[in-house]
Please model this.
Amino acid sequence: MKTTIEINDALLKRARSVSQRDGTTLRALVEQGLQHVLGKPVRSAPTAVESLVFDGRVGFTEAFADASWSKIKEESRRR
Model:
């Protein structure tokens, strides 16, 4: 779930530094902090991924053979 929060500039700078140092994301760091304060970790349920097979062929259709990723993303969101 997405949300917006206001964080003190100095605290955000420290958090970004720690997340970069630890090779994690700011999101993961915030979640760890909330789990610590709330007292118990919460695991999210695994997300099912639909398996798609297209006639056994590999690669893009002719319409997308030379398309940029932004065009491919844009078209995929229209469907």
